[in-house]
Amino acid sequence: MPYVNIKITKEGASSDQKAELIAGVTELLMKRLLAALLILPLAGCVVVPVGSGKAGGDTALVCHKGRKTMELPRSAVQGHLNHGDRLGPC
Question: In this structure, what are the phi and psi dihedrals at residue 86, rounded to the nearest 5 degrees?
Protein backbone atom coordinates (compact mmCIF):
# COMPACT_ATOMS: atom_id res chain seq x y z
CA MET A 1 0.00 0.00 0.00
CA PRO A 2 1.45 3.37 -0.96
CA TYR A 3 2.23 5.79 1.82
CA VAL A 4 2.37 9.56 1.40
CA ASN A 5 3.38 11.98 4.12
CA ILE A 6 2.29 15.57 3.46
CA LYS A 7 3.79 18.28 5.66
CA ILE A 8 2.55 21.84 5.43
CA THR A 9 3.83 24.67 7.58
CA LYS A 10 1.26 26.39 9.78
CA GLU A 11 1.40 29.57 7.75
CA GLY A 12 1.26 27.68 4.44
CA ALA A 13 -2.43 26.67 4.28
CA SER A 14 -5.74 26.71 6.13
CA SER A 15 -7.36 23.55 7.52
CA ASP A 16 -9.76 23.51 4.56
CA GLN A 17 -6.87 23.84 2.10
CA LYS A 18 -4.99 21.00 3.82
CA ALA A 19 -8.08 18.77 3.63
CA GLU A 20 -8.52 19.63 -0.06
CA LEU A 21 -4.86 18.82 -0.77
CA ILE A 22 -5.10 15.46 1.02
CA ALA A 23 -8.33 14.60 -0.82
CA GLY A 24 -6.73 15.48 -4.17
CA VAL A 25 -3.61 13.40 -3.54
CA THR A 26 -5.74 10.48 -2.33
CA GLU A 27 -7.90 10.65 -5.46
CA LEU A 28 -4.81 10.76 -7.70
CA LEU A 29 -3.24 7.75 -5.94
CA MET A 30 -6.46 5.74 -6.17
CA LYS A 31 -6.79 6.48 -9.91
CA ARG A 32 -3.16 5.46 -10.53
CA LEU A 33 -3.51 2.32 -8.40
CA LEU A 34 -6.73 1.34 -10.18
CA ALA A 35 -5.10 1.93 -13.56
CA ALA A 36 -2.13 -0.25 -12.55
CA LEU A 37 -4.44 -3.03 -11.40
CA LEU A 38 -6.39 -2.93 -14.65
CA ILE A 39 -3.45 -2.57 -17.05
CA LEU A 40 -0.64 -4.69 -15.56
CA PRO A 41 -2.53 -7.99 -15.71
CA LEU A 42 -3.03 -7.45 -19.46
CA ALA A 43 0.71 -7.88 -20.00
CA GLY A 44 0.38 -11.56 -19.06
CA CYS A 45 -3.05 -11.97 -20.60
CA VAL A 46 -4.30 -15.54 -20.93
CA VAL A 47 -7.47 -16.71 -22.64
CA VAL A 48 -9.47 -18.45 -19.95
CA PRO A 49 -11.84 -21.06 -21.33
CA VAL A 50 -15.35 -20.94 -19.93
CA GLY A 51 -17.80 -23.70 -20.56
CA SER A 52 -19.40 -26.86 -19.33
CA GLY A 53 -16.45 -29.08 -18.47
CA LYS A 54 -15.91 -31.52 -15.63
CA ALA A 55 -17.05 -29.01 -13.01
CA GLY A 56 -20.26 -28.49 -15.02
CA GLY A 57 -21.93 -25.24 -15.99
CA ASP A 58 -20.06 -21.95 -15.84
CA THR A 59 -16.40 -22.82 -15.14
CA ALA A 60 -12.92 -21.31 -15.43
CA LEU A 61 -9.36 -22.63 -15.37
CA VAL A 62 -7.20 -21.61 -12.40
CA CYS A 63 -3.48 -22.22 -11.88
CA HIS A 64 -3.45 -23.58 -8.31
CA LYS A 65 -0.24 -22.89 -6.34
CA GLY A 66 1.64 -22.44 -9.63
CA ARG A 67 1.62 -26.20 -10.24
CA LYS A 68 -1.80 -27.60 -10.99
CA THR A 69 -4.40 -26.43 -13.52
CA MET A 70 -7.88 -26.79 -12.05
CA GLU A 71 -11.27 -26.32 -13.70
CA LEU A 72 -13.52 -24.71 -11.09
CA PRO A 73 -17.05 -23.37 -10.89
CA ARG A 74 -17.01 -19.57 -11.25
CA SER A 75 -18.31 -19.27 -7.68
CA ALA A 76 -15.06 -20.83 -6.37
CA VAL A 77 -12.61 -18.79 -8.46
CA GLN A 78 -12.44 -15.65 -6.28
CA GLY A 79 -11.48 -17.68 -3.21
CA HIS A 80 -8.53 -19.14 -5.10
CA LEU A 81 -7.46 -15.74 -6.46
CA ASN A 82 -7.57 -14.35 -2.90
CA HIS A 83 -4.88 -16.78 -1.74
CA GLY A 84 -2.52 -16.29 -4.68
CA ASP A 85 -3.74 -18.59 -7.44
CA ARG A 86 -4.19 -17.03 -10.89
CA LEU A 87 -6.61 -17.34 -13.79
CA GLY A 88 -5.65 -19.57 -16.67
CA PRO A 89 -3.70 -22.78 -17.01
CA CYS A 90 -0.29 -23.21 -15.36
Answer: -135, 155
